Amino acid sequence: MAAAEGTEEDDAAYIIKEGDCVVLKRGDIFKALKVQLNKKVMFEKQWLFLDKAVGQLYSTAFEVVSGGHLEPHKAKTTEGSADTAEAGADNRNIVDDGKSQKLTRDDIETLKEQGLKGQDIIQQLIDNSSTFRDKTEFSQQKYIKKKKKKYESTITVLKPSCRILAMMYHGREPAKVCHLRHDTLAQMLTLGNIHAGSKVLVFETCSGLVLGAVMERMGGYGSVVQMYPGGEAVRAGVESFGFPPHFHDTLHEFPICHVNALLAGTLNTAPAKEPEADANDPSKAGEEAGQTDEDMGGGGGGGGEGGPEEPKMETSTAAQDKQREWDKLKENRLQEKKVKMEEKRKKLASAAALLEGKNADGLIIASRFHPSLVLLGLIKFLAPSRPFVVYSQYIEPLIECYTKLKDQGGTVNLQLTDSWLRHYQVLPNRTHPVLQMSGGGGYLLTGTTTVNMRNFKAAGAQQADEPPAPKKLKLSGSEG
Amino acid sequence: MAAAEGTEEDDAAYIIKEGDCVVLKRGDIFKALKVQLNKKVMFEKQWLFLDKAVGQLYSTAFEVVSGGHLEPHKAKTTEGSADTAEAGADNRNIVDDGKSQKLTRDDIETLKEQGLKGQDIIQQLIDNSSTFRDKTEFSQQKYIKKKKKKYESTITVLKPSCRILAMMYHGREPAKVCHLRHDTLAQMLTLGNIHAGSKVLVFETCSGLVLGAVMERMGGYGSVVQMYPGGEAVRAGVESFGFPPHFHDTLHEFPICHVNALLAGTLNTAPAKEPEADANDPSKAGEEAGQTDEDMGGGGGGGGEGGPEEPKMETSTAAQDKQREWDKLKENRLQEKKVKMEEKRKKLASAAALLEGKNADGLIIASRFHPSLVLLGLIKFLAPSRPFVVYSQYIEPLIECYTKLKDQGGTVNLQLTDSWLRHYQVLPNRTHPVLQMSGGGGYLLTGTTTVNMRNFKAAGAQQADEPPAPKKLKLSGSEG
Amino acid sequence: MSFVEYSERIREGDVVIIYLGHESMMPVKVQAGGKTQTRYGAIRHSTDLIGQSFGSKVTCSKGGWVLVLHPTPELWTVSLPHRTQILYTTDIATITMMLELKPGSVVCESGTGSGSLSHAILRTIAPTGHLHTVEFHQQRAEKVEQEFQEHRVDHLVTVRNQDVCREGFGVAGVADAVFLDIPSPWEAVGHAHTAMKRHGGRLCSFSPCIEQVQRTCEALTERGFHDLSTLEVALRVHGVRSVGLSLPDFGPDAGPDAGETPAPAPVHTSVAIKTTIPPREMTGHTGYLTFATKPRT
Amino acid sequence: MSFVEYSERIREGDVVIIYLGHESMMPVKVQAGGKTQTRYGAIRHSTDLIGQSFGSKVTCSKGGWVLVLHPTPELWTVSLPHRTQILYTTDIATITMMLELKPGSVVCESGTGSGSLSHAILRTIAPTGHLHTVEFHQQRAEKVEQEFQEHRVDHLVTVRNQDVCREGFGVAGVADAVFLDIPSPWEAVGHAHTAMKRHGGRLCSFSPCIEQVQRTCEALTERGFHDLSTLEVALRVHGVRSVGLSLPDFGPDAGPDAGETPAPAPVHTSVAIKTTIPPREMTGHTGYLTFATKPRT
Hints:
- The complex is a heterotetramer, with two copies of chain A and two copies of chain C.
- Helix content of chain A is 31%, strand content 19%.
- By secondary structure, chain A is α/β, with parallel strands linked by helices.
- Chain A folds into two domains: 14-157, Vcp-like ATPase, Chain A, domain 2; 163-291 and 326-480, Rossmann fold (3-Layer(aba) Sandwich).
- An eight-stranded mixed sheet of chain A has the order 11-10-9-12-13-17-14-15, sandwiched between helices. Chain A has a five-stranded antiparallel sheet with strand order 3-2-8-6-7, with helices on one face. In chain A, strands 4-5 form a two-stranded antiparallel ribbon.
- Chain C is an alpha/beta fold.
- The radius of gyration of chain C is 26 Å and the shape is flat.
- Chain C has two domains: 15-71, Vcp-like ATPase, Chain A, domain 2, CATH 3.10.330; 75-234 and 284-294, Rossmann fold (3-Layer(aba) Sandwich), CATH 3.40.50.150.
- Chain C has an eight-stranded mixed sheet with strand order 9-8-7-11-12-16-13-14, sandwiched between helices. A four-stranded antiparallel sheet of chain C has the order 2-1-6-5, covered by helices on one side.
- Chains A and D meet through strand 1, helix 4, helix 5, helix 6 and helix 13 of A and strand 1, strand 6, helix 2, helix 3 and helix 4 of D.
- Strand 1 (4-5) of chain A pairs parallel with strand 10 of chain D.
């Protein structure tokens, strides 16, 4: 037996630091935020300060004590601890007279003032309930759950991950992620064969969750191009992942309003000729765009009004000073604007360079846009024999998508799916599926491109990518 | 404790008789047929005779012995008996060399010739398998299932019921029942509040399964009107239920091509005036139609060519004989046709009488027709405050149906649902959901009529039947 | 009205279902001179209900209106006063079919609980069947008996206040079907067997936990029941919606100037589709339904 | 090609996936001079495959054609030679996310089985992670090791032929995640704990039967794991269809003669809709997935 001994790990990586992106957890509720000192944050209707979490290890459970401060919780996680109480076989002896609880509200307030923690208060409530033991397991659980929500305030500080953030979004703000359920996102990443070193296109309106999930799976290797609609790429959710800075070097963005131009070879990513100014360095565009054979358009503009380090010249009068200040302000603003535009241009150029080869390795779509049009537009950038995954909250648009892909050819392995997710309570003599379950996790259309995709024929090539089925071949019933 | 002693039951009701409608069961496979003596029937690729089942009790298990004859099977049902074998923890020691079975094919044939029954042969195979005990439970079950299918031939003869016939159709010929799954049919009967004494309209193209199910729940009390499309009412499946004759008196039929005429009050169910003959008795129509205020149209035709008992007159010549024979034949045919037409007319009249009051108690639709048009056409016959249930294999037509009902008003409690059905294997240490499950059971749209339905306004009365929601009222998220 | 027979018009003494809005209903016992408060105002029974047609609109005192519906076991299930966890229509429908209930069936049930299933059984076995229902909780047994009277189905049912595990159903050899919804159904399997007809019948046991199912299946097999089948049915209610899907703007197709100036933030148009959305949360589990056949004995 | 890196063109020694039709695929090792028979005729590796682009059409000797696809763990899962029950993509996807696998993760797995999950793990943890996989069946361990070489992922994986319940994973304090797919996972929980990093990690156990889950959960709780979560994911594949719905003919609207003569059997027209149909049978259960977190120790 060849036993490889583990190297001692550096705790530093596991210590909560100021400025870290973390996720607070209480029960099944999550909240992502940045650790800031002396900042009041609201979580589950409770104000608290994260200051005392700094320096502690990730996954530490804290109790919220007076003043909203956190105090490390030495005991084991409380979850399920009160569940082991003895359960009555049935509720036959329970009379609902509202007198079963011996503790009064005042008693409870006193316990709280004494600094009793949530878990202890619940235990007190159980001990002082004359009916708890006689309740059925179902009723006991309902009781504990209700009380927990009211009195317990154990909070765990977690390192963010795709798993946690996906559960957080789906649980708290499903509309922000187009109701994408975490297990559906899991399918997307796997069916999209997302992995380090590949070049993946992402079109999403899921607050950046899908983009972040793809980046996590790429681990900082390869390139991700966010194809975005509208004026600016939206991806607040990516921040919550707390990626190391070099991850962001792998992230590119391309506004879809330039897709047609790029495909037609008419997209000019060279420095723009502006009416007021054309301060651009044509060499930089090439530098960023790297080793591409891209048509850079009509060449860059000429030199400009000098760099930001322009030497200052002193003059004597106040008026001159004022005028100068004014001029400078104006110039700075202009300069800033130019820098921004230049950055934007460079970004566009670098993304265009990645796209132009039409050799992307993966395409992930999850948005409130009509998936059919988005997919047909963006699939052109994929290399042959590469997977694509389209998510939609609704099945109807994916039916259209499926039909159009079948008609135009150039794809195989088309599959339209949905999935259901079921959680279980596993406890001695009380094992059963969790009573509430998600009603749906959305729909996925997945497939693989073929060489035909490139020589895409508008019509007449129906299902040309399916080998002709010989008579002896029994095709499965699930394909049109 | 007031113990009511059971009355001794009459075995006669539980004995299989010639002419009975029965269901054969082997494993999960069912087949409905009529018991006929000396008739070879095919079941699960096996020819057999039911003769020896006659006189036995229902639910008896039979072994198919040589010549296809049945022999009552004294042992308990074999199902699951071989499953209790000891299972290996894993397959680690199994080498698939095809040599694990010590019995040869010839050995097995010999066993069969010796009259060994299926179950015994399987036990022999297990005993002579060097690897069976080492296989995991999953592999063992797969093995037993395979062998059972091959060697076992225990057949149970069951009394038909809605439960069994619904499982039979869905399992063997789902296309014949529009893929209606048995649990979905169960929902329909309950949500439709089908019960004795009511008047229920059924529109189905499910081979009569749905109609039969409704009749079973009515127990011979009340009326069922089959609203049928096309030339003739199709309901072969009703026969399989083996209802006592009086059940059929409660069954009426009405061709939907007369729906508009009936609603317009222009349907003439009086004896038709035919060009060649008008042998009709107008009094009969009224008799059948009962206490209705129906407009019987322009009155019946006059008397006819006499009844079938017309006395014969003898003549002498052969030619005359021939002519007479010919005439008689012709006349008989005409007569038969007239009788049939008269029957049809009476049927129509009696069904029309049931419909005219527009006071039916329930409406069940399950067909390959567009449910929206069918429902909007037939819902007019329902009394207010009555349930209706529409089944469709597809969700899209029911979305349309839902939308139209919402637009026109006159209904409440609209609900569009589907359900999933999961079976479990419950065995010591081997409990889990059955690995294969049905992919879908179809969709249901259900609702309740209101008084408004009668004074149906074509448009402009949008959602007029929903009380105006006051601001404090939180409406559930699942309604548009 | 009765829960097993439809009527056209409301009479005194009827129990009617007041429909206040989607999934908001309440049962009301109609009494001459009676008055019922709703959030839309008061309903005066004598003028607003008695003599009216079921399914009518009733204008309340505050000017709002409600609908008055004929009771059915299904409307009762969604509006009854809960004294226990109750069985809902999806399970009830499955139980009714799988127990092969029909007019004339004799059924034993325990526990009666809030009577949700009992009403559905009575509807199906009327007019010639009978329900023997056993409830150990005295208050509940009394309350449900009173409801059966008010619902005019008391001639079809016998309520017994006893412990089914110890004392059984109080009948022998009469039942076509037995239904168990008790914490330890395995303790009542023998009594179920006793209650059932000699020539056989069907049994159903409802249990939330798999361990209960396992013990019950063992007890059923020991007692000679066969065709054991454990299943679950879950219902999903689809919301019908009109939703808008944005249309992507991939920019002008070609032209030499394309891309020269930054395009203004494009205005996306959208298309509307009719679709359904699932509920965020649905009932994923109520309990396991275990069915079995009692053979001829 | 490699299972963790895409290539554009096929080279000798590559493993490619031959797509023969819907859900019909086979893996082929490309060898100069090699020949593979398909039902459409033979594929000659040197001329038909080597140097071709992945995703190309290949015309076979009988004139039929197939597609040659770049291998992925997902295509491998549907085309690999089964030596055991395998894990499928739906479970694999869930496991990968819930174990928080990513480039650099160190993972322990047992049993290796046919290597379906192993390939997916390797794809996700490359280029800097490592998989320690333990398989007690010697032939299988050898076979899968050979496949890892052919798939050019052997540098990322260590295969051990031993009994995980007795001998553990052969590593200590290194794993970010552990996956168990063995008949008695509770016996390996201690070894899993040993294999995991001091600061914690995630564990997943796959078991078909609930009793296995119950024992495993007990063992996990005893060993100090927390956040236990047992779940199932089932995938439903929808068939896209154009179906016709008949239109009912309710007959002529009015007219005094309506109904006078029996109407001829009406000719029903129909409308076509695009819809989906579910599969008649789907995989409703593969196994329960139990996840847990190992806390810092």
